[in-house]
Every structure is written in structure tokens, then in C-alpha cells.
């Protein structure tokens, strides 16, 4: 339902409409198991290429890029392509709160960047994100070069889509 509505949180209510609580994407990631998908999809096959920006890019320009592209993360990399920092929606909120829209990306990005190998299975990514307390992962190749990025929202959407495909193919026997 959250995916259908484009929501990242949902109120939980009882039959009388009394609010019982709030469920977030993080809650879903923490409590869902995707064992049926193990061994089928990896960061290399299911995560998009990263939006890579120069560290001197003003935050205001990054926000415009996010709005135009629908992306929610940008990377700053070194000359070899290894991640130096990541700028996400949480960083946007902090930048807006402190009036840092004119500042450089490399002044407000989060670092160090949490990375995983490209061949990491999506089911492992969900568990790893929970353990690390992060909402974005950068997939790197053997040389440490950033090749893919995946946020929690996109991860859950992809896992949900894969589960729906399996349910359609195999029915309720899953």
C-alpha cells in the first residue's frame, strides 16, 4: 500500500479509526524477510549507476538535480572514482535547516561512505543496512570504484516488485 501511494510512512489505525502508530520503510526493512529471493538479484543487476558530482557543486544545484531526476543521493568521488562522500535527503534537511544552500557539496556531504561489493545480494543489502544504520549503500568494484547506489526506498520497491513477480508466477505456494 505504501508503494502504491508513494508514501514512506503510513499511519496504522484500528477499525474505529484510532491511530495506533506509524510504520516507516525502516520498520518494513527491519521486520520483513526475503529468503525466497536469496541468490537471485545483486547490487550489480538491480541498482542504478550513481549520480556523481564535483565536490564544488553548490547544494542548491544538487537539490534542483534531485527534483528533476527523482534521485535521492549524489556521490562525490576522488580522481580514481572511489567514493569520498554521499549527499542524501537527510543531508538536504540538515542543509536547509542551517541555511547552507549556497555551500559546496563537499562541505555538507556525509562521510565516510558505507560500501558493499557489487555482487552483494539485495537480501543481504537489506540486512546490512539495518545493522549499519544507513539508508543508502554504494556498491564498489574490486578497485573500490563506485559503480552503483541504492537507497532504502528503491531497495524496498525492488524487493516488493520481485516478490510480486514471484507470487504471480508461482501463486500462493510461496
Explain how this protein is built.
This protein is an alpha+beta fold. The protein has helices at 2-5, 25-31, 43-46, 59-69, 89-97, 105-108, 122-132, 152-170; strands at residues 9-13, 19-24, 73-77, 83-88, 115-117, 136-140, 146-151. The protein has a 3-stranded mixed sheet. The chain has a two-stranded antiparallel ribbon with strand order 1-2. A hairpin with a 5-residue loop joins strand 1 (9-13) and strand 2 (19-24). The two termini are 20 Å apart. The relative contact order is 0.19.
Q: Structural class of the helix and strand makeup?
A: alpha+beta
Strand residue content: 15-25%
Instruction: Please count the beta strands (DSSP E, at least 2 residues each).
Output: 7
- Most strands sheet: 3 strands, mixed
- Tell me the series of helices and strands, N- to C-terminal: HEEHHHEEHHEHEEH
Query: So how many helices?
Result: 8
Considering the chains and any ligands shown, give keywords for the structure.
174 residues; alpha+beta; three-stranded mixed β-sheet; two-stranded antiparallel sheet
Summarize the structure.
By secondary structure, the protein is α+β, with helices and mostly antiparallel strands.
Layout of secondary structure:
Blueprint: H1 2-5, E1 9-13, E2 19-24, H2 25-31, H3 43-46, H4 59-69, E3 73-77, E4 83-88, H5 89-97, H6 105-108, E5 115-117, H7 122-132, E6 136-140, E7 146-151, H8 152-170
Parallel strand pairs: 5-6
Antiparallel strand pairs: 1-2, 3-4, 6-7
Helix pairs in contact: 7-8
